[in-house]
Design goal:
With 377 residues, the chain is α+β, with helices and mostly antiparallel strands. The chain has a domain at 10-91 and 325-373. It is 42% helix and 19% strand. The protein has 15 helices and 9 strands. It has helices at residues 10-15, 31-43, 49-58, 60-63, 76-85, 88-103, 118-121, 153-163, 180-188, 202-216, 292-302, 304-315, 329-346, 355-364, 366-373, and strands at 109-116, 129-135, 140-146, 170-173, 192-197, 226-234, 237-246, 263-273, 276-286. It has a 9-stranded mixed β-sheet with strand order 3-2-1-4-5-9-8-7-6, with helices on both faces. A hairpin with a 4-residue loop joins strand 2 and strand 3. Helix 3 (49-58) packs across helix 5 (76-85) and helix 5 (76-85) packs across helix 13. The chain starts with 9 loop residues before the first helix and ends with a helix. The relative contact order is 0.14.
């Protein structure tokens, strides 16, 4: 690799200030060498500490063209120990700062959703649960926040929102995140929200569902609302979605309690597979104006966090089966995996390729891997 660490990528610039938690006399290997080695290995498909070490030994000559490696390739035990000791909160914040520099002002839909690291959780009495933020338009993870062992997503989501730059974005969250404090945090961050509404807010849910169902049934003809219908076909499945949204909320007392609340909406999803048809209704509160196309875009975009982030991390990076849970190791390696996924997604030279194919190309071609690591935007 002709480029050196003095010609840093944005990723390297944002992680180089990470404090080294090791005692000075135990530092046979440089922290940045370990981080970059691990990132390169994970991009190329490494799934364990042992495979990261194996990758290092087989690529040592190339790695030494830009890493110092004063004592060669660290053992898998050393790599695992370093990742277990690194401060997870600081490591995650380095990632978030990197993504702020990459994305700038997004003005897009940002989906917030939780994910449990199932494999790591099996090794511990305290399951590791992360709340992820995902920019749906460009398919990039923006950061995550660990749910406290004795808490839930309701406390983790506001903490994550405080770390992100969301001005001009639409934030979508499932029913767990439909909370007054979360809505307030989003509005104060100069963003908008679309929050799924379920029975965890019994009175509000009952009032909104009765009102929207009556509009759907053709009652209250004096009420202004906007609607949209979409059709999807494929693989023997037919799905019709109807979106209905209104700003006329003078009847809703709870409106005063939710900062920024401007509209309520519903989605009626009618799905037919073969001869079987099912109908589901979903309800939302939002700070957006009652424009059905905008509401539909936000609702549909939310599912990208499952399909393009959580599913890819599990299937391509095997995250659900990882059992690396010594101290902070699982959470820190999650940062590396999301870094690898973002770098692969940001590549503009292989637009038609899947993430798996890009990984394969990186494993075969060090010049291509160099281009991924050294990306500036």
């Amino acid at each position: 690799m002709e480029a050196s660490l003095s010609q840093k990528s944005l990723w390297l610039k944002h992680f180089e200030a990470l404090p080294d938690p090791r005692i000075e006399r135990h530092k046979k290997h440089l922290l940045m060498d370990i981080l970059v080695l691990t990132l390169c290995a994970v991009i190329c498909g490494a799934l364990s500490w042992e495979s990261i070490e194996d990758y290092g030994h087989r690529q040592q000559a190339w790695l030494k063209t830009f890493l110092l490696l004063p004592n060669g390739i660290p053992s898998h035990d050393t790599i695992a120990r370093v990742f277990s000791l690194l401060d997870a909160k600081t490591f995650s914040e380095c990632f978030i700062d990197w993504m702020k520099a990459v994305t700038g002002r997004l003005k897009a839909v940002v989906a917030i959703d939780g994910k449990r690291l199932r494999g790591a959780s099996k090794q511990s009495d305290n399951p590791i649960h992360l709340v992820n933020a995902f920019a749906t338009a460009n398919g990039l993870a923006l950061g995550h926040y660990k749910v406290s062992d004795k808490s839930n997503e309701i406390t983790a989501i506001p903490a994550l929102l405080k770390l992100l730059s969301l001005e001009g974005c639409i934030v979508t969250i499932d029913a767990m995140g439909c909370q007054k404090e979360i809505a307030k945090e989003i509005i104060e961050g100069k963003a908008d929200y679309v929050l799924a509404l379920k029975e965890n807010h019994a009175e509000l849910y009952e009032a909104v569902t009765l009102y929207l169902d009556s509009l759907w049934d053709g009652k209250h003809k004096e009420v202004a609302w906007d609607g949209l219908e979409t059709l999807d076909k494929g693989h023997g499945r037919f799905e019709k979605r109807t979106y209905l949204v209104t700003e006329q909320l003078d009847w809703l007392e709870a409106c005063k309690e939710w900062q920024g609340l401007l509209s309520v909406g519903m989605v009626v999803a009618e799905r037919t597979i073969g001869t079987h048809t099912s109908i589901e209704r979903r309800y939302y509160i939002s700070s957006l104006p009652a424009k059905a196309s905008l509401f539909a875009h936000a609702v549909r975009s939310h599912w990208a966090v499952e399909n393009q982030l959580h599913w890819v991390l599990d299937v391509t990076f095997n995250e659900d089966r990882q059992r690396m849970n010594t101290k902070h190791a699982a959470q820190n390696l999650a940062v590396i995996r999301q870094s690898a996924l973002n770098l692969l997604r940001m590549d503009k030279t292989t637009k038609a390729m899947s993430i798996k194919r890009r990984q394969f190309c990186a494993a075969l071609d060090n010049q291509y891997l160099q281009g991924l690591i050294m990306q500036q935007s």
